[in-house]
Amino acid sequence: MALDTVIYPQDQFGVWGYDYLIQEEKSLCGFLESNNLFPNHEQAASVHANNWDYCSSSSVMQNHNSCYDMKDHWGTISSPDDCTGGGSGGGGGGDQMISSELESPHCNMMMESHVGAALTTNTVASAGRRKRRRTKSGKNKEELENQRMTHITVERNRRKQMNEYLAVIRSLMPPSYVQRGDQASIIGGAINFVKELEQQLQTLEVQKRAMHQQPNSVNGYSPPPLPFGEFFTFPQYSMKSANEVSGNGGGSVAVADNRPLAMAEIEVTMVESHANLKILSKKRYRQLLKIVAGLQCLWLTILHLNVTTVDQMVLYSLSVKLEDGCQLSTVDEIADAVNCLLGRIEEEAL
Amino acid sequence: MALDTVIYPQDQFGVWGYDYLIQEEKSLCGFLESNNLFPNHEQAASVHANNWDYCSSSSVMQNHNSCYDMKDHWGTISSPDDCTGGGSGGGGGGDQMISSELESPHCNMMMESHVGAALTTNTVASAGRRKRRRTKSGKNKEELENQRMTHITVERNRRKQMNEYLAVIRSLMPPSYVQRGDQASIIGGAINFVKELEQQLQTLEVQKRAMHQQPNSVNGYSPPPLPFGEFFTFPQYSMKSANEVSGNGGGSVAVADNRPLAMAEIEVTMVESHANLKILSKKRYRQLLKIVAGLQCLWLTILHLNVTTVDQMVLYSLSVKLEDGCQLSTVDEIADAVNCLLGRIEEEAL
DNA sequence: ACGAACACGTGTATGC
DNA sequence: GCATACACGTGTTCGT
């Protein structure tokens, strides 16, 4: 039923996750052991099976506890009586339950424990004072019980998802990073792994740059929260002076000045017929598409392009080749052209 | 003190991990030995004060804790002593707690709720017999209470550690990977990030290699039929697919026969709503432009894009986000769409 | 009100 | 035993 169906749309890691299966296998064992207690558990298990492993493959899943919990619970639904009132008490209604125990010695059990899960339901729960609630709670009772179940299910899914992600990320790194299978260590290992990867990346880039003599555009997004701080050295256009553009969310900037307004942080460097462009602008609708098209119109062929999105800002760093028919010859001309292009994009995006 | 110190030995991120050292100085000081020595829980309570504030430095916060925190929440205060007896009930000794509650009206609160799921056993509740256990339990009671507290503390530390790791790994990636602060999404984002980093690494290495071998480009990368031979692992589409379908063990390539002609080497991987595309095709007129446009039409937003040109081949490696209206949901569907898109581009380029 | 996400204390399995 | 780690159901809190 709807309750247990999984909410998370995405999951789906398909391929990986094999190690996770191991875990489940274990639980399977547990499940089997406990079986004998429940003659009919199998159907319950099968029923729940679909919803719990939403993501496909896995099959067995979950431990026995949950299985029979559910079963019990569902079984009990038929007779919802009052017991829930006492047991579910949980949140705001905690008081009620307390009182109940005070007065009625036999109502005791609930407490117990367990109320927990579904069992509490069957425990009788005393009658006492709460009758006035009766009227209202009578309807709410199962209502409430229902939403408790959804709560449980949701929570269960959350955990499951978590584990799947962990399994995935674990499968992505070399096992040396995970020594203990512990889930904290997994993400601890992931931390190391990421750091290692970034370091390697940096190394390679430096090598390449050294090799190439000329600074290149391909640097990945860097870890610092504001990666773009040192990214520009001498931009032809800078937002610093013209903050209002981004500030007010872009009014009519069109052709206000004879001196064109900076649409973005733009820096162009050139060597022979190759140019490097760095453009930091805010996200605009279809901007990338239009930039690519616009550059092509300017007889600039894109050799290398890197797009990095951070929040509402996008950093395009690209290296282009000035084709034979290109009218532009200096960095300033190119910067002007790009700024103008961005201006048109802004206009059209309004 | 020992109780709260963090137990996890592994953390230690070696070289990089300097930041963690800050958090709890994991005193190796014999945690085990000392803890059970506690005569009574009050010390324990004081102890807990420090460890509970998980968020770094800070100190005090949550003082009310101790075992009676529950009480505080619910406002149902009562003399703490007896309630502990009841509350601890937990594990095997669940019975005790039951009895205690029966007798002492004011100790009420704890009860409930949690006791956890499994204890079905006690539900029975009958009152009678449990008191004589006293003699034995009398000693064990606080003993047991004590170790319950350590359990709680340990568990609390576990969670805390988890969160710290999550915070760390989150701080390592660009915020675009974490849209929701949700802890599942964090590690989901980490998955994407790791994949992206690896991809970039591969790209750079390939570039470097190509750069090195520039002179003899003809047979330079000829050993593999395709220049970026090792770049793809399980491509949905492959240029050599005609004969080699079986070659790449591919569960995913299964339906290769009735599948449209491969326009390029295409590999799609997916996590949540993020997909990584690798496309290796020959250069075609305006191809990049059309790819960008085409993806936008498919409700795929380009988050990261990397273009590498080698000779007459181009490698696009991009990470895209599936927007809400996107019809595509599986890697195969995306691969199909991309292949189809390339087909149209090829047509138009003729 | 309602849902989504967490923190909590507990039960329980696994390893020494 | 006892330490560790996970799953569970629940309470609570925070956006909407």
From TrEMBL, chains A, B:
Region listing for Disordered, in residue ranges: 125-144
Broad class of the protein's primary localization: nucleus
Domain of life per record: Eukaryota
Keyword annotations: DNA-binding, Nucleus, Transcription, Transcription regulation
CDD domains the record matches: bHLH_AtFAMA_like
Alphabetized GO MF terms: DNA-binding transcription factor activity, RNA polymerase II-specific; protein dimerization activity; RNA polymerase II cis-regulatory region sequence-specific DNA binding
Keyword Transcription regulation: yes
PROSITE patterns, per the entry: BHLH
CC terms in the record's Gene Ontology section: nucleus
Coiled-coil ranges per UniProt: none
Places the protein is found: Nucleus
BHLH domain span: 146-197
PANTHER family reported in the protein's UniProt record: MAD-LIKE PROTEIN 1 (PTHR11969:SF54), MAX DIMERIZATION, MAD (PTHR11969)
Name of the featured protein: Myc-type, basic helix-loop-helix (BHLH) domain-containing protein
Organism encoding this protein: Cynara cardunculus var. scolymus
